[in-house]
Design brief:
The complex is a heterodimer. Chain A is built from nine helices and ten strands. By secondary structure, chain A is of the alpha/beta class. Chain A has a domain at about 10-90 and about 165-255: Rossmann fold (3-Layer(aba) Sandwich), CATH 3.40.50.300. Chain A has a six-stranded mixed β-sheet, with helices on both faces. In chain A, strand 9 and strand 10 (about 225-230) form a beta hairpin. The longest helix of chain A has 18 residues, at about 180-195. Chain B has a domain at about 1-190: ABC transporter involved in vitamin B12 uptake, BtuC. Chain B is built from 13 helices and no strands. Chain B has helices at about 1-25, 30-50, 50-75, 80-95, 105-110, 120-140, 140-150, 150-155, 160-180, 185-200, 205-230, 235-265, 270-280. In chain B, helix 1 runs antiparallel to helix 11 (about 205-230), helix 6 (about 120-140) runs antiparallel to helix 9 and helix 11 crosses helix 12. The longest helix of chain B has about 30 residues, at about 235-265. The model of chain B has no long low-confidence stretch (mean pLDDT about 85). The chains are: A alpha/beta, B mainly alpha.
Chain lengths: ~260, ~280
């Protein structure tokens, strides 16, 4: 541990900007996330929430600025097992992949098991424990395709949790999940955050539900990102919030002759 | 004939191992592209006087790597890369086959000639099969995760690019040796059909892998017997048997589902109850 007194900086984004071809997504995004933070990221469709996470993962290269994870530039970062990521659409191979919940969770123990080795009993037990944590132990042997959307999402969360990451990046984990499951997923995340000090950054379209769990809220809007304080969050929840940078940005676009 | 059985069995074990990953990666057409390209290698081998399987192997590896290279250039329409290489392979095979003196020999690669296999080819198939099998078992967990979710696999520390590279080579090598036995035109169905059958029964990924090998072995053994006694072409017989079996499975499953629904009355009741149990 480099510094025992101050919580250590888990994510640091400096002057981050990104554009797809000629379409600017956002610019001048800068923030720090500290160990133990539970941050919610909100913003309209197309405001770049998922893009932000992919920049943090180093999957996309920024147009400007940079990202560091655990104090290291993301381009040279290689301790990926410390980071857990849950993508918006779950699995890239689709929901009907012929594998059991346990097989899927065990797969994420790769760095534990080791290259070219097969999982042992202890790894399978670990996977079962992770499934138990999300309330899916009874479904360990079930095929992914036979589970409901909410159950599948829990399995995928267990897969991320099994390798005991220090940072969780979640892209709308409660999307398409029924209200009760949303509540229990959020309760679980909140508990992991409090009890294990897990740092979480969660993109969500439904901040009203998550408002009680998160300790910080970031808002992506009109090409930039701001952190909302308590009062702004209350306004946001009552749909009155105006993005502070919006007027600024409009002016800039006008002055730049629409170049932006 | 005994030799045909030995070679057929070896291939029946390795082709579905490659096939299941190919199918689950949604690359079913890749087997087609590679096997058609392998014909160009066969023709080149026959012209140059080297063993056609060796020629096919070389061209297959080149074709597989080209597909990967083109796929990276046009990621959004990556399946175009397969079509491009497939047509290039067939085109090249067509032109080169004009220079092959012994046309019957070339034709034997279209539909396979498992019965007329030489000593050298027998040893080649045995070596390749062992290598592919060992690689598949060693990379079992890595291939599983890369197939399941490439991005998550990378985050978990799997060397995704190396695993994909090795798998591409394995696929190319498997297709080129298989083109000799079941034939270049049907090797991709040998990859897909046993996997399709096993996916109807498998209760896990492991079971699906074992099941698809079991189906392929059964199709090959029964197919070879049938073709021998009924004097049919072995490659085609094996594949047709597989397709018939797959259709039969679908039919039986459908009938069973209808019967079950009729007996229970309310088919959704059970799954709804299970879903309710999950919520704490």
């Amino acid at each position: 541990m480099p510094d025992a007194l101050l919580p250590s900086e888990v994510i640091r984004a400096d002057n981050l900007g990104f554009q797809y071809a000629d379409t600017p997504v956002f610019s001048h995004v800068g923030f720090s996330l500290f160990a133990g933070d539970f941050a919610g990221v909100i913003g309209a469709n197309g405001s770049g929430k998922s893009t932000l996470l992919r920049l943090l993962l180093g999957e996309l290269g920024p147009a400007s600025g940079g990202v560091s994870l655990f104090g290291r530039d993301v381009r040279r970062f290689d301790e990926w097992p410390r980071v857990g990521y849950l993508a918006q659409n779950g699995l890239s191979s689709g929901a009907n992949f012929p594998a059991t919940a346990e097989e899927i969770v065990t797969a994420n123990l790769f760095s534990d098991i080791g290259f070219l080795r097969l999982p042992k009993k202890s790894h399978r037990e670990k996977a079962r424990k992770a499934l138990a944590r999300v309330g899916m132990e009874a479904f360990a042997g079930r095929m992914l395709g036979s589970l409901s959307g909410g159950q599948r999402q829990r399995v995928l969360l267990a897969r991320v949790l099994v390798s005991e990451p220090e940072l969780l990046l979640l892209d709308e984990p409660t999307n398409g999940v029924d209200a009760e499951t949303v509540a229990s997923l959020l309760a679980l995340l909140s508990r992991l955050n409090r009890e294990k000090g897990l740092t979480i950054m969660m993109v969500t379209h439904d901040i009203a539900r998550a408002a009680e769990c998160v300790s910080r809220v970031f808002c992506l809007e009109d090409g930039s990102m701001v952190e909302l304080d308590k009062a702004q969050l209350r306004e946001e929840l009552s749909h009155k919030h105006k993005h502070p940078a919006r007027e600024d940005e409009r002016r800039r676009i006008k002055e730049g002759g629409g170049k932006s | 004939m005994r030799r045909a059985f030995a070679v057929g069995l070896l291939l029946a074990v390795i082709i579905p191992c490659i096939g299941i990953v190919v199918v689950l990666k949604r690359l079913s057409m890749m087997g087609d592209a590679l096997s058609h390209s392998s014909l160009a290698g066969v023709a080149a081998g026959l012209i140059l006087g080297i063993n056609p399987i060796v020629g096919a192997g070389a061209v297959c590896v080149a074709a597989a790597l080209s597909i990967e290279a083109i796929r990276k250039r046009i990621p959004k329409y990556s399946e175009m890369s397969i079509a491009i290489i497939l047509s290039a392979g067939v085109g090249l095979a067509g032109v080169l086959s004009g220079f092959v003196k012994n046309a019957a020999n070339f034709n034997s690669f279209l539909f396979g000639s498992i019965v007329a296999i030489s000593d050298f080819e027998m040893i080649l198939v045995a070596c390749v099969s062992c290598a592919v099998l060992v690689a598949f078992v060693l990379l079992y967990k890595e291939l599983f995760y890369v197939t399941l979710d490439e991005r998550a696999a990378r985050l978990a520390g799997v060397p995704v690019r190396s695993v994909n590279f090795v798998f591409t080579i394995l696929t190319a090598v498997t297709v080129s040796v298989a083109s000799r036995t079941v034939g270049a035109l049907i090797v991709s169905s040998m990859m897909v059909v046993p996997t399709a059958c096993a996916m109807q029964f498998g209760k896990s990924y492991r079971q699906t892998v074992i099941g698809s090998v079991a189906f392929a072995v059964a199709f090959t053994l029964i197919g070879l017997f049938l073709s021998y006694y009924a004097r049919l072409k072995p490659g085609g017989t094996i594949v047709l048997l597989g397709v018939a079996c797959f259709l039969l499975i679908l039919l039986v499953k459908k009938v069973a589902a209808l019967r079950g629904a009729a007996r229970r009355g309310a088919p959704e009741a059970e799954s709804a109850r299970e879903r309710a149990e999950v919520l704490p």
